[in-house]
Design a protein that fits this description.
Layout lengths: L2 E5 L2 E3 L5 E8 L8 E6 L5 E7 L5 E3 L7 E6 L4 E6 L8 E7 L6 E2 L3 E5 L2
Parallel strand pairs: 2-11
Antiparallel strand pairs: 1-3, 3-8, 4-5, 4-9, 5-6, 7-8, 9-10, 9-11
Protein backbone atom coordinates (compact mmCIF):
# COMPACT_ATOMS: atom_id res chain seq x y z
CA UNK A 1 0.00 0.00 0.00
CA UNK A 2 1.39 3.35 -1.08
CA UNK A 3 0.41 6.59 0.60
CA UNK A 4 0.80 9.85 -1.27
CA UNK A 5 0.77 13.33 0.22
CA UNK A 6 0.67 16.41 -2.01
CA UNK A 7 1.73 19.90 -0.99
CA UNK A 8 2.56 23.25 -2.53
CA UNK A 9 -0.80 24.42 -3.80
CA UNK A 10 -2.12 27.90 -3.24
CA UNK A 11 -3.45 31.12 -4.71
CA UNK A 12 -1.31 32.89 -7.28
CA UNK A 13 -1.75 35.56 -9.91
CA UNK A 14 -1.60 34.85 -13.65
CA UNK A 15 1.97 34.52 -14.85
CA UNK A 16 3.32 33.38 -11.50
CA UNK A 17 4.79 30.00 -10.59
CA UNK A 18 4.15 27.20 -8.12
CA UNK A 19 5.91 23.93 -7.37
CA UNK A 20 3.84 21.00 -6.23
CA UNK A 21 5.38 18.11 -4.33
CA UNK A 22 4.10 14.61 -3.76
CA UNK A 23 5.85 12.40 -1.23
CA UNK A 24 5.26 8.67 -1.16
CA UNK A 25 5.53 6.18 1.66
CA UNK A 26 4.78 2.50 2.13
CA UNK A 27 6.09 1.21 -1.17
CA UNK A 28 9.01 1.08 -3.57
CA UNK A 29 8.66 4.54 -5.02
CA UNK A 30 11.37 4.11 -7.63
CA UNK A 31 9.53 1.38 -9.55
CA UNK A 32 6.36 3.38 -10.10
CA UNK A 33 5.47 5.59 -12.99
CA UNK A 34 4.18 8.79 -11.40
CA UNK A 35 1.45 11.07 -12.66
CA UNK A 36 -0.08 14.44 -11.96
CA UNK A 37 -3.77 14.87 -12.73
CA UNK A 38 -6.05 17.83 -12.21
CA UNK A 39 -9.77 18.31 -11.84
CA UNK A 40 -11.56 21.61 -12.21
CA UNK A 41 -15.08 22.08 -10.78
CA UNK A 42 -17.66 20.29 -12.91
CA UNK A 43 -15.04 18.70 -15.14
CA UNK A 44 -13.41 15.29 -15.42
CA UNK A 45 -10.01 14.51 -13.97
CA UNK A 46 -7.39 15.00 -16.68
CA UNK A 47 -3.78 13.92 -16.99
CA UNK A 48 -1.33 16.80 -16.72
CA UNK A 49 2.08 15.13 -16.72
CA UNK A 50 3.71 11.75 -16.34
CA UNK A 51 7.17 10.45 -15.56
CA UNK A 52 8.31 6.85 -15.87
CA UNK A 53 10.56 5.01 -13.47
CA UNK A 54 13.40 5.77 -15.90
CA UNK A 55 12.63 9.47 -16.00
CA UNK A 56 10.89 9.73 -19.36
CA UNK A 57 8.25 12.43 -19.34
CA UNK A 58 5.02 13.27 -21.12
CA UNK A 59 2.73 16.30 -20.90
CA UNK A 60 -0.74 17.41 -21.81
CA UNK A 61 -0.68 19.82 -24.74
CA UNK A 62 -2.17 22.54 -22.58
CA UNK A 63 0.85 22.62 -20.26
CA UNK A 64 3.75 21.82 -22.60
CA UNK A 65 6.51 24.37 -22.25
CA UNK A 66 5.12 25.68 -18.96
CA UNK A 67 5.08 22.70 -16.60
CA UNK A 68 7.90 20.33 -15.73
CA UNK A 69 7.55 17.01 -13.92
CA UNK A 70 10.54 15.54 -12.12
CA UNK A 71 11.28 12.98 -9.47
CA UNK A 72 13.82 12.42 -6.71
CA UNK A 73 13.91 8.74 -5.83
CA UNK A 74 16.17 9.42 -2.84
CA UNK A 75 13.35 11.49 -1.33
CA UNK A 76 10.44 9.40 -2.65
CA UNK A 77 9.08 12.60 -4.13
CA UNK A 78 7.70 13.73 -7.47
CA UNK A 79 7.45 17.40 -8.34
CA UNK A 80 5.42 19.52 -10.71
CA UNK A 81 7.00 22.89 -11.49
CA UNK A 82 4.31 25.14 -12.92
CA UNK A 83 5.35 28.36 -14.61
CA UNK A 84 3.39 31.03 -16.44
CA UNK A 85 0.22 29.97 -14.71
CA UNK A 86 -3.11 30.82 -16.27
CA UNK A 87 -6.61 31.06 -14.77
CA UNK A 88 -7.54 27.90 -16.69
CA UNK A 89 -4.92 26.00 -14.66
CA UNK A 90 -7.15 26.42 -11.61
CA UNK A 91 -8.02 22.96 -10.29
CA UNK A 92 -7.36 20.40 -7.61
CA UNK A 93 -4.12 18.66 -8.51
CA UNK A 94 -3.74 14.99 -7.67
CA UNK A 95 -0.66 12.82 -7.54
CA UNK A 96 -0.92 9.22 -8.72
CA UNK A 97 1.44 6.28 -8.49
CA UNK A 98 1.07 3.37 -10.86
CA UNK A 99 -1.68 4.65 -13.14
CA UNK A 100 -5.31 5.73 -12.86
CA UNK A 101 -6.87 2.25 -12.96
CA UNK A 102 -5.09 0.29 -10.25
CA UNK A 103 -2.72 2.88 -8.83
CA UNK A 104 -2.71 5.01 -5.75
CA UNK A 105 -4.00 8.56 -5.30
CA UNK A 106 -3.15 11.43 -3.02
CA UNK A 107 -5.76 13.65 -1.43
CA UNK A 108 -5.18 16.54 -3.81
CA UNK A 109 -3.97 20.10 -3.45
CA UNK A 110 -5.85 23.18 -4.64
CA UNK A 111 -4.25 25.51 -7.16
CA UNK A 112 -6.06 28.77 -7.84
CA UNK A 113 -4.85 31.24 -10.44
CA UNK A 114 -6.64 34.54 -10.18
CA UNK A 115 -5.97 38.26 -10.26
Amino acid sequence: QVQLVESGGGLVQPGESLRLSCTASGGRFSIYAMFWYRQAPGKQRDLVAAITSLGNTNYADSVKGRFTISRDNTKNTVYLQMNSLKPEDTAVYYCNAGGPTKGYWGQGTQVTVSS
